[in-house]
Structures are given as C-alpha cells and as structure tokens.
C-alpha cells in the first residue's frame, strides 16, 4: 500500500514536471498569416533608441499643406494597407501622408527590455517623429489606441497640432473606470456588437500565453520569443476583430501578421503610470473630429469624455459600422475626414 502511494506521488511529480517543462520551454505554433514587409518602407533611427518603419506618400500638389500622421490602434497594432488606401486621396488636397509602425510592431524594431514599452516611450517617439518631419504643424489621424496616444501628446504639445481626427477612440488615460457605466442618449441609436472582446480573449488564451503574460508583468522579461508571441497576437486579434464589426459574419479577412504582443501587453500595463493631465484639454482649441461606429465596442462614456473636455470637437456616428470603421464603411470614413480637413475644421462651418 505504501509502495503504491509512493509510486503515485512520483508519477504525479513527473507529470507536474513535464507539464511545467511544456509551459516554460516548449514553444507553441499558430496557423496564422506571416508578416509581409511593405515595399518602399523607410526607417527612422530615433534618439529614443527606437528604429521605426514608416511609409510616406507625398502630396500630389507642389505646395504642400500640413503633413498628416496616422496613428494605428493596438497597442501593438500596425499600419494596414486598408488605412493607407483609405487616406491616400488626401494627398490631392496638398498633404504629405506618414504611416508608421509604433515601436515593437510591424516593420519597427522589437525591444529586448520589454519594460521600455510604455505610453511615455510612444509619446517620445511621436514627438521626435514630428520634429523630423520639420513642419510647423501636423494633422493627426488616430484610430482606437492611436487616439489615446494623440490625446496624450497634445496635452504636452498642443502648438504642434493643427487638427485631430479620432476614429473609434478608446478611453483617455489614466482611465476613469466610472465612465463605463454611462448610458448613451437614445437619439444616437447605439447598439452593442454581436461579439465581445471578453469572448475573444477567453477563446484565444491558453495556459502558456497566460503564463507568458504573468511573467512579463511580474519580471519585465520575455518567457517566449517575439516570433511566438507575435504569432499568438495575430491569432488573438483574429478573435478580437470579430467584436469590431456589428455582426460576426461581416469579418471576411484573416488578420495579417505583424503585430507586437509584448508592445501590446506592456504598454497596457503602463496605462496606470500615466499622469492625469486631462484638465489641460479644456484649454485646447484644436479642431477635433470624433468618428464612432454605431456598433463600436468601446463604452459610450469614454467618447462622452472627449466631447466634454475638447471644446472644439464634433461627433459623427456612422451607422451599421463597428469599431473597425475603415473596413466597415471606408467611403463614409474618407468623406467625413476629407470634408473636415478641407475646411480646416472650422467649428462654425463644419456640418457633417
């Protein structure tokens, strides 16, 4: 009896050891699209230590106006071809267009020290990029997390920005969690998407990826390679992207590879470290266009806060569209941005 018990203990210990070995040392693979480098990608070597890949489209006119910088979502997202093609016609208004992958994603370098993926680092990179462009002012178009980054930037450098276009904005940092309970006006006719981020996370995460996340948060270290976790991030985003449309069956494309998982989780971790400077926004008169899909997965209260704090802001709700406005209704997305920029966001003249 005692011998049998000892054998069971040894067997249990062996199974536990094998399980831990599998979690810590055996990489997982995912059937996802691989990252494809974009032709004519250029690079900035920044003093922050970031190597940033970017794509530039020059104005079709001789005399250029304020250049436009697009800030992609995420964190850890990247520039997508759909964003480039949707905004390309703005060059006909006289604007150079800049699309860059934020540090840790897309064409940009991955950092060895993942604790350096912070809102502060992204903000410093953006500031130096604007300096490199050497324009008196720029126009910023943000999507989702890119809106958070844009708002964080103008709190420090409002003089550098001519106007803002914020598509599907997430919450202003640091997040005021009370706003998630705000109820939208009935007149907006907002509806929830069929799929939620919670469902996507639950389906995609496994024991190993949960351990990788915990390890990164606790020790600021990589437990797995960038290749493994970035492939997982592509798989995760395939599930999360279902919540960016009104209906699941509207998702027709596989998610492209290239996002940066460590940049994602560590930047999110740094959200709580952001100093609350939202009151500065009340004194900023930059023209702001806020675009929100009718089925956006972001809580209404977060959008309302932008309208409350930014005195020169306009909101347009795009019907039958979710968080992914570009793929949901590219023509309306461009039309609204084109009209807004063409009249320079005059708050008396803009009539969406």
Task: Describe the protein in words.
With 352 residues, the protein is α/β, with parallel strands linked by helices. The protein has a domain at 42-190 and 275-342: Alpha/Beta hydrolase fold, catalytic domain (Rossmann fold). Helix content is 36%, strand content 12%. It has 11 helices and 8 strands. The chain has helices at residues 2-25, 81-87, 119-133, 145-154, 197-204, 207-219, 226-240, 261-269, 300-309, 325-328, 330-342; strands spanning 42-45, 51-57, 68-71, 97-100, 138-143, 161-167, 288-293, 313-318. Strands 1-2-4-3-5-6-7-8 form an 8-stranded mixed beta sheet, with helices on both faces. β7 (288-293), α9 and β8 form a beta-alpha-beta unit. The radius of gyration is 22 Å and the shape is globular. The model is unreliable at 345-350 (pLDDT under 50).
